[in-house]
Amino acid sequence: IPYVLAPNHQTYVDGLIVAKGLPPSHFERFSALIGADLKTDHGFMGKVILPVSRGVEVERHGNPIRGLVRAVRAAQADNIIMVHPEGTRTYDGLVAPLQDGASFIAMRSEIPLVPVYIEGGFEVFSRYDKLPRRKNPITKKKNRINILFGEPLLPENYDDPSDLTKDLEIWLKAKEAEYLKKNEGKLRQR
Q: At what angle are helices 65-76 and 101-109 packed, to 10 degrees?
């Protein structure tokens, strides 16, 4: 069954983190919409992520339409497409403003959009870390990452991608608020 996964963007390896929560048969159909600049501007890690994620490239700093059309075609060919609606990794661990790419792909492909919240990724492997941080420097406990999958948002219930994106953002922000409340005083400086 094709669908769009729309997780918050915490680490370089979010695709692997999210894919780990999928049934093995779904992983075989998994692709990620990724910035074309990953292979040129992000060193070794960027070069590795592109083939591992079966990346569908999109221009982040130019016209994204060609990449979005390729992603729609991949979805219509019964693939699962992961799209980070924030467009880039978080700078502070919080959900940034969302773009409509994930919603556009879901609506054009007429497939569900599945909200995904990654808890703890920023604490383990933020954009500022060279290596993952196994322990919380404050509590000295092992860092944990949890993946929360929401109920699918169905494109037929929306007239416009921006309306679908708004509901996705409401869900992500609610999960973020729960995570922050649960971990008050234990998180790295935001």
A: 40
Q: Rounded to whole angstroms, how far apart are CA atoms 116 and 113?
A: 10
Phi, psi of 150, rounded to the nearest 5 degrees: -90, 175
Residues 6+ apart with CB under 8 A from 164: 100, 103, 106, 107, 113, 153, 155, 158
* Residues 22/120, Cβ–Cβ less than 8 Å: no
> How far apart are the C-alpha atoms of 171 and 173, rounded to whole Å?
6
Q: Which two tokens stand for residue 9?
A: 């963007």
Residue 164 in 3-state DSSP? Answer: helix
DSSP 95: P
Query: How many residues would you count in the chain?
Result: 190
Q: Is the pTM of this model over 0.85?
A: no
Residue with tokens 């992983």, as numbered in its chain = 27
- Give the model confidence (pLDDT) of 92-139 as tens digits: 999 999 999 999 999 999 999 999 999 999 988 888 888 888 887 778
What is the Cα–Cα distance from 93 to 99, expressed in whole angstroms? Answer: 17
Q: Is 153 exposed, middle or buried (0-12, 13-18, 19+ CB in 10 A)?
A: buried
